[in-house]
Amino acid sequence: MTNVFKIGDKVRIPVRQVKKDADGNAVMRWNKWANAYSHSLINAMSEDVYQVVSVPDGKRKRYAVLKILEDGSLSHHAPHYHGASTMEQAQ
Fold first, then answer.
1. Terminal-residue alpha carbon distance, the chain
2. pLDDT digits over 40-67, tens only?
3. Buried-most residue among 9, 52, 54, 65 (CB within 10 A)?
4. Interatomic CA distance for residues 48 and 12, integer angstroms
5. Torsion of CA 48, 53, 55, 58, to 10 degrees
């Protein structure tokens, strides 16, 4: 298996976002089990850019990515792990 991304590549990862209507208001839906309204969620790609810091080398086929901060440095929080099929190349 060849790795799709290399160390240092800039990528976007999938996130869950609140669905918005045409006016920019959050779309709510009725949750009958909780008897309450809740936000409708959609799958989208992150607006933040992440950098690949490790590539798969064995059994686990996941890439470790760290968020790139405004000043260009990498965050020092725990990395996110994603498969190649869920990530997309950032411009």
1. 25
2. 888 888 888 889 888 887 777 788 888 8
3. 65
4. 7
5. -120
* Rounded distance between C-alpha atoms, residue 66 and residue 9, angstroms: 11
pLDDT of residue 19 exceeding 80 = yes
> For residue 14, what pLDDT is reported?
87
For residue 89, the tally of other CB atoms under 10 A from its CB is: 10
pTM over 0.85, yes/no: no
Residue 64: strand pairing partners: 54, 81
Report the distance separating Cα 67 and Cα 77, nearest Å: 9
Q: Do residues 75 and 65 touch, judged by C-beta distance below 8 A?
A: no
| Helix/strand/coil percentages in the chain, nearest 5 | 0, 45, 55
Which pLDDT does position 75 carry in this prediction?
Answer: 84
